[in-house]
Each structure stands twice: as C-alpha cells, then as structure tokens.
Amino acid sequence: MTSQTPTSTEDTPSVPGWVEGSLDTILSSLPFAADTLAPLRARYLDCLATCGRVADLDSEHDACRKTLLTALRNTLGLDEDALRDLERKLEKLELDISADI
To answer: Which segments of the protein form a coiled coil according to its record (predicted)?
Structure first.
C-alpha cells in the first residue's frame, strides 16, 4: 500500500520559505490571537502557494488577499481602517513574492 501524503522529494505547491515569517509579522499587528488567525493564515498561504503555477500572478494574489480580507471582516469583525492597513501590507508581501519567483 502506498502513502498518499507527499514526501519532501515530491513537487508540491509552496511559497518561498521567508513568506511565513513575514506573514506572521504582518498578522501579529492584528488584535487577534495567533490560534484564532491560524485557519485563515493557512488558507491564505495555501492560496499563495498555488499562484506560482498560473500565468497572471497579480490577479491570483489579488484573489487570495481579497478572500483573506473578507474572512477577517465577516468572521472576526475586523474594522475597515485595520483592513485597509492590512491590505497595503499584504500587497507589499505579494510584490516581494513576485519579485522572488
């Protein structure tokens, strides 16, 4: 019986190693505990990881960011000022990711 879990030698979507730490720094400015943000953080990182396989990277990043921001607004009630500030920080992160690819 073979395992369905990818091994370290298999090609799985991922973001550059530095992205997680940068995202954690950005998210630490929010008024929520890390464990509260963990599911949203994971979905955002997963979304970004799949973006490296598409032609229009910017629009894919936009979609990932908008999904995260909508979830923060609708699920956790993050206010509009904090959302705008977070959006600017995430846009910068995504530009850095694009430059690193």
So the answer is: 69-96
Terminal-residue alpha carbon distance, the chain: 36
Contact 20, 45 (CB under 8 A): yes
Phi, psi of 77 (to 5 degrees): 70, 30
Q: Are 59 and 42 in contact (CB under 8 A)?
A: no
Region of 77 (left: φ > 0; alpha: ψ -120 to 50; beta: rest) is: left
- Which tens digit of pLDDT belongs to each residue from 13-40? 677 789 999 999 999 999 999 999 999 9
What pLDDT score was predicted for residue 2?
A: 41
What SS3 string covers 48-86? HHHHCCCCCHHHHHHHHHHHHHHHHHHHHCCCHHHHHHH
Hey, what are 5's tokens?
Answer: 């879990």
